[in-house]
Amino acid sequence: MQTFVLVVHIILAVMMIVLILVQHGKGADAGASFGGGGAATVFGASGSGNFLTRLTAVLTALFFVTSLTLAVFAKKQTTNAYSLNAISSAPTVPAKVNETSPIVPKSGE
């Protein structure tokens, strides 16, 4: 599931970049009046701005949702990694008790 969301996230990012670069700025209309010739578009004179603006808003909202989803996945992954449940409970073996003390000499010496 995380891989699917990541792929959708990357595709949305690339689509947003392309869509934003296709749009023309507010100052582009002034250049067209001096013989720029770029006023004719595929969607019509006024329809292109509205359509592209709405499509950008939809892609941005979807990008935001996928970002939050990936953040939730990452949080769950780190929580599981640092929880005490992840540590396997192996049986503990008590340490071997040393019979002789280093201070007291052994008997028979």
From TrEMBL:
What Pfam family does this protein match (any one)? SecG
State the Gene Ontology BP annotations. intracellular protein transmembrane transport; protein secretion; protein transport by the Sec complex
Q: Give the residues annotated as coiled coil.
A: none
Q: Which residues cross the membrane?
A: 51-74
Under the GO molecular function aspect, what terms does this record hold?
protein-transporting ATPase activity
> Which membrane topology term applies here?
Multi-pass membrane protein
Known InterPro entries for this protein? SecG (IPR004692)
Which GO cellular component terms are attached? Answer: plasma membrane
What is the role of this chain?
Involved in protein export. Participates in an early event of protein translocation.
Protein name stated in the entry: Protein-export membrane protein SecG
Q: Which organism is it from?
A: Acinetobacter tianfuensis
| Gene label | secG
